[in-house]
# Entry
Amino acid sequence: MNENEQNGPRPKRRYKKPAVQSIGLRAEEAVLGNCKGANTKGPNSPGNNCRPIGYCVTQSS
Amino acid sequence: MEMRLKIGETKIELVSAAADLKMGVQGAEERFLDAGGDVDVSLRVAWGDLRGPAAGEQVFDAGSLWQLYRDDTDYLFRFTSSHLGPLPYKECRFSADFNHGEVLLNRDYLNGDKPIYPLEHPVDELLIVNLLAQGHGVVVHACGVEDSDGRGYLFVGESKAGKSTTARLWDKAGGARILSDDRIIVRLQEGRLWIYGTPWHSDGGYAISARASLDHIYFLKHGKENSIQRLSNAEAVARLMACSFLPFYSPAGLDFSLAFFQRVIKTIPAEQLRFVPDERAVEFIRGQQCG
# Structure
C-alpha cells in the first residue's frame, strides 16, 4: 500500500485562471539616462572642472 | 598618474596617459578610493579627438545623455550634452568582459586645470552594472540598512517611494548603519547574499563603502499605517527587475539578472511595506524581526 492510499486521495486544488499582472518600469530611471544629482562633482558641476554650463537638466533620483 | 576605486568589491584602476590630465574625486566618491593590490578593471584615461562618428553599430540609445555602440570586440559609450555642444564630451571603450578599456575626454569641453573624475556618473554606474551582469550581482534602486544586530535590510523602490525618508528614519533611530539611500549592489560572495553601499546617493548623502548581509527585502510604499503584505515569488522577482539597473542591450546580462533575482527571492523573505514616515516605521520593522 503506498502513501497516497494510506492517507486517502488529496483534495483537488481549485483551478485559478492565470492572470497577467503588470509591474511598472520607469524607463527614464532604469537606463541611467540622467545625471545623479544637482551636486554632482566633475564635468557635470558648474564651476568645478568644466565650463559652468550645468547641462544636467534632468536628474535621476 | 593613477587612481583606484573599490565599489562593491570591484576594484577599478584608472591611469592617466597625459601629464596635463589630472584626476581626482570629491564628495561621496572619495569614500570609495582604494589602495594598491590586484584590480578587476584597468582603464586608460586620455584626451581624445571625438569629432568623428562613433565606430560600430548603435545598439542602445539612453536618450539625451548617452548612446552605446558595438563593434567586433568592444562596447563604446558616447556621452553628449546639447548644453556643452554637438560633440561628445566623453567616450568610453570597454572590452567585452568590461575588464579593460579607455576613457577619452574632450578637451574642448573640459577644463584641464582642475582634477577630473573620468568615471563621473553615470559612467561609473554603467561600468559596475555591466561588470556585475557577467555573473556577479545587480545594482538595485534601494536604500540599504544594517541594523545594530547585524541584520541587513533592502528597501526597494522607484523615485519618491520613500528610500531617502527611510534612510533618515533609521539614521535618526540610532544603532543602524546606512549603506546608501538610493543605490545598493546586491551580490553573492562566499555563498551568501550581501548588500553593498555605493557612491550614487540621493538627497541624504548616505553613501559608505561597506557591506552587510541581506536578510530581508521590503518594497516601499507610502501608507496611512505601517503594514506588510507578502508577495508571490513571481511578483517579487518582477518588482526587483523593475527597480534595478540592468544592461537592457545584453540578453545574457538580462538572463543572468533574472536568474539571480529568482535565487534571491527563494532565499530571502520579500514583502511590500506600507509605512508612515516617522519613527514608528523603524519600530515596526524591528518588531517584525522579533516577532
Residues 38-58 of chain A have pLDDT under 50 and may be disordered. Chain A has two helices and no strands.
